[in-house]
Amino acid sequence: MWSKASVRADAEVRTAQADVESRRQIVKTRITELLGIKYPILQGGMAWVAECHLAAAVSNAGGFGIIGAASAPPEVVKEQIRETRKLTDKPFGVNVMLMNPNAAQVAQIVVEEGVKAVTTGAGNPAQFMPLWKEAGVKVIPVVASVAMAKLMERAGADAVVAEGMESGGHIGSATTMTLVPQVVDAVSIPVIAAGGIGDGRGFAAAFMLGAEGVQMGTRFCVAKEAITHEKYKERIIRAKDIDSEVTGMSHGHPIRCIRNQMTREYVRLEKEGAGLEELEQLTLGSLRKAVMEGDVTGGTVMAGQIAGLIHKEQTCEEIIQEIMTDGSRLLGVEK
């Protein structure tokens, strides 16, 4: 017969095993299962930044790399997909900007090239949902409100990225801290947190809010594998907590970037009541100038508020391992 001591010891072993398994589940979430990745970290689909080298490096490091299609011609997107596949045998995706006049062609290329998943922004992807779902493509729209998250779930989305206004580039009005838990409560599909996440603390906080993964953009902008101009990277690394600026509030299309000569001129014109056409002329091609040419004075240096927390250039492997190590420790789980 079993003694009370042996029964108690056996129960303690089972409890310990259950605890270990529970810890492992934090890394193995519905997002890692959905995308077939090791760690629940996605790289943002940043225009001019998110190309084959960065996407492949993130995927090779255990995350989910994403090619930013932005407004690129369809043939360029196809080339980027094929180049990424030469650099990694891991899953990766494409971010489809729905305002792109070529969005329909890009949507078709995603299917033809056998891309694992897409994230979408700047619109409703419902028109492409039947095409993608039939081909087995996982669809993950980026949302900035509970209403949009619910709409995307009804349309057949596999997950959503709840992106707070702390993020770089085009932003909504809700913060990550307030948006993520409300979206988690409103939908049954997995939620990925984005906006203001740049280290293990942000990763842990996102999970405490109910997210099952995180998406980061600004942190990967300074990755060694990113083609971002060194001056762009340096500007992010040198950024302070108060260096963030939002332009475009006057016409309902706010964009977060790092304050410079261009943003000051833009804000001045907005206050003076300048029209959309005049403002667009000021920023025409400005993101490309900053990312590719290093014009961090007259170009648009898109970056999130988390830029002030980023102090060095690292490989994607180093970034992801650092975040997973610190985040797992804070959550009390195994990496």
Automatic annotation (TrEMBL):
Nitronate monooxygenase that uses molecular oxygen to catalyze the oxidative denitrification of alkyl nitronates. Acts on propionate 3-nitronate (P3N), the presumed physiological substrate. Probably functions in the detoxification of P3N, a metabolic poison produced by plants and fungi as a defense mechanism. One of its GO terms (molecular function) is nitronate monooxygenase activity. Pfam families: NMO. Keywords: Flavoprotein, FMN, Oxidoreductase. CDD domains: NPD_like (cd04730). This is Probable nitronate monooxygenase. PANTHER family: 2-NITROPROPANE DIOXYGENASE, 2-NITROPROPANE DIOXYGENASE-LIKE PROTEIN.
